[in-house]
Structure of ArsR family transcriptional regulator:
Amino acid sequence: MSLSFDALADPTRRRILGLLLGRPRLVGEIAHELEMSQPRVSKHLRVLRDAGLVTVRPEAQRRWYELRAEPLADLDAWLAPYRRLWAERLDLLEQRLETMPDVLEEEPRQAKEQ
């Protein structure tokens, strides 16, 4: 899983995964979308492939890059307890905010008193 985190640490690689979420793509398409050179995109794709996040499907002279969902599912499972922690804290914040007086309702009353 550490390879996945290393690969996902780079924002360009996350953008590439976002592009591949919709459908498989050629390197040239990805380079065009990201406004980057093909060699530079190929380096990012190599890192993603080494991390197991993408696969390559050769078709004649072209190479289609596809997203692999399995490593992302592993990451999602690892993050699940942290998501629950966030949800609990947001629930506590919501409960606290509901007990606080509404400032917008209080302001006109204060203005009348002065």
Q: What stands out?
A: The helical segments are 2-8, 11-22, 27-34, 38-50, 69-99, 103-113. The CA atoms of residues 106 and 112 lie 10 Å apart. The first helix runs from residue 2 to 8.
